[in-house]
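Reopening: structure tokens for the manganese (II) ion complex, inputs below.
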Amino acid sequence: MNLTYYGHACFSVALGRHTLLFDPFISPNPLASGVDIQCIAADYILVSHGHGDHLADAAAIAKRTGATVIAPFEVAQWLGKQGAPKIHPINHGSCQFDFGRLSLVAAVHSSSLPDGSYGGNPGGFVVESEAGNFYYSGDTALTFDMKLIAERTRLAFAALCIGGNFTMDVDDAIHSAKFVACENIVGVHYDTFPPIKIDHEKAREKFHAAGLRLHLLKIGTSQKF
Ligand code: NI
Ligand code: MN
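Re-run output (same inputs, fresh job):
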């Protein structure tokens, strides 16, 4: 699995011949100004909830690539109205796709859409595929539900929000990594806005002291898992 980080909570994972793009928020993010959204590949665009910092570029990338948007029901319907040509609405639970099995799992957060309409419930994603398994927390607080993931899925990596204020902070994410029984953590949802700025060195040290590896990828770079 090859993960490419596009800033904030946006990343793609190439699984065999499929590329999954998560929570595209690139053009409004000054930290990601070096990323050309015209060059981002996607067969599927997965959106965790309705907040603008997770879907700003979703409809535009879906139109350009023809990717299928997979999102909680209300968010998928809304992105369809914004012009996403193919949508696959889901809700909490599991579903089989050609890239593998996808579960929309619990996230403790909120989910209104940019125009104020109802966004349903927010979620995180577990992907189980032949190339490997991973978890993306979406925006969430630390929650005991994360323990369920470790009960049946061996994760190669987990992308966890670590910026605090709106989501888990570094200490919560360390706890979450233990709940999901995963040593390889990709940090997301940090530094983009003043309230979620973190000290990278301190964060890495804290994870290291807990026997975990925190990967803070430079925007636009990739890592294999
Ligand atoms: Ni959010
Ligand atoms: Mn967010």
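The helical segments are 52-55, 58-65, 73-81, 146-152, 170-179, 200-209. The two ends are 5 Å apart (CA to CA). Marking as resolved unless the reporter disagrees.
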